[in-house]
Specification:
5 helices
């Protein structure tokens, strides 16, 4: 399944019901690029790097890792980044360790979203089997991940084209048929 973190939405329909636990809360969903998410992943990886180089300290690794994690999604390129920015001469063992950096970033992001959902709350508006509109087109809800306020949607009803979509970007399928209207506002999907 392809996992997408969609931005935008809001194409003339009410967003999915994500209610703040505290009235008036406007706390936004944490992005995978949020500083606290990146730093959490970098710290986790730094602890593993210190095992590789026991003469170093966790603090020495965090900043260079945080800067590299956002641009490089494999251990080899991340090791080359550390070589050029922090003068770390890596080997195949370090490459293997750093191959897990993107997984750690995704884990930190998932943890941040779970925390966010406990603060703002989430009540799904769509059930499994509902036809919905997303930025990727019309599809069928195949599962609900309430803990992170996301839906799995099979675009065009095909499981092979399933995407994971933030709840605030999933809307009931428009009832208009035959008019060429496809749920978009002004001919394009909502822009931020």
């Amino acid at each position: 399944m392809k996992v997408l973190d969609l931005q935008g939405g809001g194409f003339g329909k009410e967003p999915d019901e994500i209610e703040p636990a505290a009235p008036g809360s406007t706390m936004a969903r944490p992005a995978i690029t949020a500083t606290h998410v990146v730093m959490e992943a970098a710290e986790t990886m730094a602890r593993r790097c210190v095992v590789w180089d026991p003469t170093s300290r966790v603090e020495d690794w965090i900043d260079p890792l945080a800067k590299g994690i956002m641009f490089w999604n494999d251990g080899y390129r991340l090791t080359k980044h550390l070589d050029s920015t922090a003068h770390v001469v890596g080997d195949s063992e370090l490459v293997g360790i750093l191959d897990d950096a993107q997984r750690e970033l995704q884990t930190a992001h998932e943890r941040a979203m779970r925390t966010w959902v406990t603060v703002v709350g989430f009540r799904p508006r769509h059930a499994v089997g509902d036809e919905v509109d997303t930025k990727h087109g019309r599809g069928t809800v195949t599962s609900i991940r309430a803990s992170v306020a996301r839906y799995s949607v099979a675009i065009g009803g095909r499981r092979s084209s399933e995407v994971l979509v933030d709840a605030e970007h999933v809307h009931a399928a428009s009832q208009t048929t035959g008019s060429g209207h496809d749920g978009r506002k002004d001919g394009r999907w909502g822009q931020d």
